Fold this sequence. Notes:
Helices cover about 5% and strands about 45% of the residues. The protein has one helix at about 405-415; strands at about 10, 15-20, 25-30, 35-40, 55-60, 65-70, 75-80, 85, 90-95, 110, 115-120, 130-135, 135-140, 145-150, 160-165, 170-175, 180-185, 190, 195, 200-205, 215-220, 225-230, 240-245, 250-255, 260-265, 275-280, 280-285, 290-295, 300-305, 315-320, 325-330, 335-340, 345-350, 360-365, 380, 385-390, 400.
Amino acid sequence: VSYCLLPQPLPDPERVLCGGGGDQFVFVRDLRNGSNSYVHLPLSGGPDTASFLRGAQPRLIDGRYLTYMSVGGELRATSFDPQTYASGRSVTLIAGVRREAYTGAGQYDVAANGTIVYVEGANASVVPLVKVVAGESTPLAIEPSYFLRYDISRDGRRVAAVVEGVREQELRIYNLVSGRSHVWLRHAWIGEPMWTPAGDRLLVSFAGYGYQLWVTVMGSPEETRLDTLFHGPPGQEWGPEFVTYHADSLVVGSIWGQPTISVAANLTTKPPTLDTIAVNSVFGSLSPDGRWLAHQPGGMQQIFLSPYSRTDQRFLVSSSDGIFGEPQWLSATELVFWECCTSWYRVRVSASGGNPAGQPAVWHTDARFSDTPGQSYTLTPDGGLVYAQAPERKPVTYLRVIPNWVEQMKRAVDEANQ
Length: 418
């Protein structure tokens, strides 16, 4: 199954335009072999050295113009060669088009006669992080941003958050006590950040454009020095994204490859080792006592518990016809999971005979939950729940209409690329 949001066929029916979702690169998916070719910017050196066009919901118009929603929430357009996948200089055409979270879809449509109709609204990806404790919801002392992935230190004082930038992703460190923040890393793609138990270092994977040449590092966010733990060979996509730390030495997470796998890394060996612990498994999360691995198949419709020493043995926690999962441990005996797109559940786990999982119970609901790529929420040491909260949806009473918009767009793109 190919991952492609809001696909649009090219003149060759075996290729489709894609963009948005887990990253904000515009690319062409070849349906014959599943390969991706990224639309590159007009920089010297060609596609091997140029950076890629960032945006969502690409649409091809008249075979050589490309419209898309920018990361900043603007409707933009550029020239496009469907054979070489080269784009030209982009121009902003309409600011303030309603942009949806995760997919990046803009609320607009273009008629056959060239008229555009759109809804004004906010960029729903630029949101605050909120924390829920005992049913009370409070925004964290962080300005709203385009949050992708985040983790809170065990002392609750600092947040490490990956945010989407205009040209690349940034790993920002927020101090919830002082209110200060700084950018620690910048890369084309940055995975799940994870604080060490002591809260003084971070473990994270990052990669170049197209997920190439990934590397997993550990370092202090107060320093520029990084210790490389793992790195991928050329051509291998996806590095490990770790989400649970156990006993200061063992970390567990997932690799979103083909197939997806849950992995564990022993950080005490020199060099560290990286082992597969479950195949066709994502969001692998180890219980604090090291007894259970919670994980789910790539279809995101079931959650299983496996003894960490016997991951081929599986106990069903929950199943759904929808999309849900992302299990995380609230304690050694209580598991949390999320169900798209409004609810979180808690389930008791015991070591008694039979299925160790109890009956899931609703813990929290929020219709304004905003889905993010990868792990879409995090738990705090004091039993809190942190997630991104979308702006309140308000009914619109009118639509904006621009006749002959396509011709205006073509002239603007042609002038920018003379």
